[in-house]
């Protein structure tokens, strides 16, 4: 089956597809980082949601007080959910876009703006930066995804 | 590398894959629309969650009263999360299904039912329509995804 | 277009890709199961969030008391969200990894550990098992995804 393997390798050798693979991996890793940031805030702020997670902090009533919400934890969780809502469409529509034969320069432009926008969005959410920084970075990623969706539908439309 | 590009284009030229690309793009765009609907309700109902978002509405205590939940905002957010929970499996299992060599008619039937079900689900959630409209539209999309998963596992199973 | 269909079928005939398709379908189906578990707890605990869902339980004030949160429902929902946060990166990075030409044994090792970790995570969350079971199973899935991301970036990096 080495012939088939070679064909698969050709997919990852295509420059547009390699760029897609690179930027998608970067934004998915960035999204995964939100889990660590939430865990960091849960531990340093002592704000948990599952009773079994407070066991190291004491038993019975003394541990129950750590079952609470904390603004920093909630902020990180909102940033994480916003990533899911926006990075999932980029991953899906971007994959189809990369297979729709865009030219390399245009594709790179889309991928770079999206990744830059989502990284900016995370800083804007967590610091937090005054609006409209978070709003504009969200909108930039959204617009890039719409633009790729337009190319996919123009190339592939089959209803 | 134009030879490789040609091979990629062949993927998007396959009719089943084009149908998959079309319907996946449609449901992902529909999911993205939920962000705009949530933002619309947040602005018109003046119900925000981040203090930095209420700055245009006044300073200090006068703005704090807009940090609140609103039933329409929460409803749109639940619809959005339900989309994530159901459209992600469709996108993933549907991709593998499209690559598993289904016949075009069967594939189109699956994709069309799923897209129709999720659009119905959104109207049923937002209006809201009396049950069991939302429940049945959810179940239709769920059943289609299970059916595609069965085909994928039957074709590709390699544990 | 049977020639193109044949080429598509070659993708699903590749052993690494078949293994990816199998394990991704399994973990996406497992994630979908969380919807049924949440619905089961909502119905048996009579804990709903949408007023239209309580109609079978009575009218007016008598139904309003079922608009409440329940610890088992919330626990299932947290497990579901944790699945989304972790299975989406596996699905995306794993797809690119499967296309990056890993050897079959290494790929199977990654996919099996991830699937086992997420199934363990679900049991640990729902029963619940004492920590660090849930924490370690989460970390195992996370580490596998990072390892695949490293391979993807090493193979495909194009910034």
UniProtKB/TrEMBL annotation, chains A, B, C:
Record keywords: Acetylation, Endoplasmic reticulum, Membrane, Mitochondrion, Mitochondrion outer membrane, Transferase, Transmembrane, Transmembrane helix
Any Pfam family matching the protein: MAPEG
Localization: Endoplasmic reticulum membrane; Mitochondrion outer membrane
Single annotated GO MF: glutathione transferase activity
EC number: 2.5.1.18
Topology in membrane: Multi-pass membrane protein
Cross-referenced SUPFAM superfamilies: MAPEG domain-like
Catalytic activity as recorded in UniProt: RX + glutathione = an S-substituted glutathione + a halide anion + H(+)
GO CC annotation: endoplasmic reticulum membrane; mitochondrial outer membrane
UniProt keyword DNA-binding, yes or no: no
Domain of life (superkingdom): Eukaryota
Transmembrane domains' residue ranges: 20-41, 87-115
Enzyme class per UniProt: transferase
Keyword Transferase part of the UniProt annotation: yes
Protein family (similarity comment): Belongs to the MAPEG family.
Role according to the record: Conjugation of reduced glutathione to a wide number of exogenous and endogenous hydrophobic electrophiles.
Subunit structure: Homotrimer; The trimer binds only one molecule of glutathione.
Name used for this protein in its record: Microsomal glutathione S-transferase 1
